[in-house]
Write a structure and sequence with these properties.
This protein has about 110 residues and is an alpha+beta fold. The protein has 1 helix and 5 strands, in the order αβββββ. It is about 20% helix and about 30% strand.
Length: about 110
């Protein structure tokens, strides 16, 4: 059964092999991040970002990293003049398929 509507023009459809490869990548990243629970890591994303923090949770689609003060310049909703103080620690959700590399920091 096809779940895609044939009444509207298709704007984008991911290649089947690419979708399979992305699912495998997500599963591999999930396993690796589960093994890094409560560890300090440096994550490199496909968007060429490097983020340091502590892995506090992993679900089927995301890893949640506690980003420490000073490791990121902007937090949505928390500008430097926020009433909660400058750059509080925040939990940053990252999509598992967006991860390129993860390093443990000691």
């Amino acid at each position: 059964m096809n779940h895609y509507s044939t009444q509207q023009p298709m704007l984008f459809q991911c290649d089947h092999q690419l979708a399979h490869s992305m699912k495998k990548h997500r599963e591999h990243a999930h396993s690796a991040m589960k093994n890094a629970m409560n560890c300090k890591v440096r994550v490199h994303t496909m968007d060429e970002e490097a983020i340091e923090g502590i892995v506090i949770n992993v679900d089927a689609k995301n890893v949640y990293i506690l980003v420490e003060q000073g490791n990121r310049g902007f937090f949505p909703g928390y500008p430097p003049f926020a009433p909660y103080g400058p750059n509080p620690n925040v939990v940053l959700p990252l999509a598992l398929f967006n991860l390129l590399a993860v390093s443990l920091l000691w």
